[in-house]
Amino acid sequence: MVTRTDPGLVRGQNEDSVFADAELGLAILADGMGGYQAGEVASSMATELLSSGLARAFKACAAHTADPDTGQLFAERALLEQIAVVNSAIYSAAEGQSRFGGMGTTLVAAVFCDDLMVVAHIGDSRLYRLRGEQFVALTHDHSLLQEQLDCGEISAEEARYSVNRNLVTRAVGVDPEVEAELHWHSVYPGDVYLLCSDGLYDMLEKGEVQLVLERFGANLELAATQLLQLANDNGGDDNISVVVIKVLREFPAAPGRWAKLWSWFK
C-alpha cells in the first residue's frame, strides 16, 4: 500500500487525509470541507479515529476466536460502528467550537480480509479497481452532480464543467447521524485498487488513470507519484490524494483472524 497527498496548485492548504496499513489490511481516505482549517481538522479526525477504532476492534476480534461472524460480517459491523463514532466526534467538535462550524468530510475506507474487500464510503471520494484490462469505479458518488447524471438531467460531458461538481449530498460530521454505503467484493492476486479524492479524478480522464496504473503497477510508489504529477500538470485545482494497493497473493483467514495484505514498495 502506498499513500500520497498533495495540496495542488490552487488551494492554500491541504484538507485531505490518508491512512494505509498493510498489516491491518486497511486503507482510508478523507477529503475535508468547512471554514478556515476546519476541513483539515475533519479529515484528520476521520482517518485517525477510524484507523485507531478499527485497529482496536480487529485486535479484540482476534482475541476471541469463538466469534461466529466471518471476517466479512465482522468487518462490515466494525466499519459501521466506528464510522458512527467518527461522525459523532466530528459533529460534536463542530457544535462545540464556532471556528469548526459546518465542518465535515467525505470518507472512503477499505478493509481486506478473507480474500474479500469490504468498502464503506460517504460523499464523492472514490475507490477504483484495475483487474486485467478492466478499470471500474466500485463506489457511486453521493453528490448533486451524480444525482443529475443518474436521472438524465445532464450528460457526462456537461458534468465535467458543471458548477455543482463539488456539492456532496452526504458527508461525515455534518449531521448527528450519517449513513455509510457498504459493499463487498472478491479480491484476486494481481488486482490494483485506487482510493482517491476528487482532486485526482476531476483533473484526469478515467483512461489516463488506468494507463498509469497499468504502466506502473509493479512500482506503486512511482504510480502514486505519477498520478499526482499529472493532476498538477492539468491544473491542480484541488488537493490531490491517493492510496494505491496491489494484491500479490491470496489471503484467506479463519473467522476472527486477520490476514496480512502485502503490497510492493519499490
Automatic annotation (TrEMBL):
Point out the signal peptide segment: none
In its UniProt entry, what is this protein called? Answer: Stp1/IreP family PP2C-type Ser/Thr phosphatase
Q: Which PANTHER family match?
A: PROTEIN PHOSPHATASE 1L (PTHR13832:SF827), PROTEIN PHOSPHATASE 2C (PTHR13832)
Highest taxon of the source? Bacteria
InterPro entries cross-referenced by the UniProt entry: PP2C (IPR015655), PPM-type-like_dom_sf (IPR036457), PPM-type_phosphatase-like_dom (IPR001932)
Question: Per the UniProt entry, what species is this protein from, by scientific name?
Answer: Candidatus Accumulibacter phosphatis
**Start and end residues of each PPM-type phosphatase domain:** 1-247
Query: A Pfam family matched by this chain, by name?
Result: PP2C_2
